[in-house]
């Protein structure tokens, strides 16, 4: 099984710059070509990201790919992927998007586009990334090196990641059903500072 780890410092969705409340640390574990992952990333998660602060400096994040494979050459960090090759290529494309994106916000938008099942070249054009550079990165053997930190991050997760998508907010994985159904609502409910502009009105 291949797992993608998306680590995102979510700055209150659209919190005022004057709010001193620290950002929520959101980690999303998902895999390429996973229908449930695609539904969440392109739906509930994308909605929350779309309501982030207008100031791009207040939206930071990183995404990477984690294969849960057979490791064939530990010293070299090489992997033998045990999943379908199409999924493996998809995970690598996500990782390359992070590596080549000029900012974390662009890499997040690129990945959301991919999870919306749009063509990779179209997503590159939409987010301003160079498609030839992305495909070159995707096909290189040394791209596995980009995935190693995310493999380690997944292995270190507690509780252990056993299914995807799984979301962690500030290191906690409770309330998965609520997070997956209405991620924006969940983020707004746990935010400790002033209510962000992007949150729905309190009932």
From TrEMBL:
- List the keywords (alphabetical): Glycoprotein, Signal
Listed Pfam families: GILT
Mind listing the GO molecular function terms for this protein? Answer: oxidoreductase activity, acting on a sulfur group of donors, disulfide as acceptor
Q: Where is the signal peptide?
A: 1-18
InterPro entries for the chain: Interferon-induced_GILT (IPR004911)
Q: Could you say which protein family the record assigns here?
A: Belongs to the GILT family.
Protein's recorded name: Gamma-interferon-responsive lysosomal thiol protein
Q: Which organism is it from?
A: Amphibalanus amphitrite (Striped barnacle)
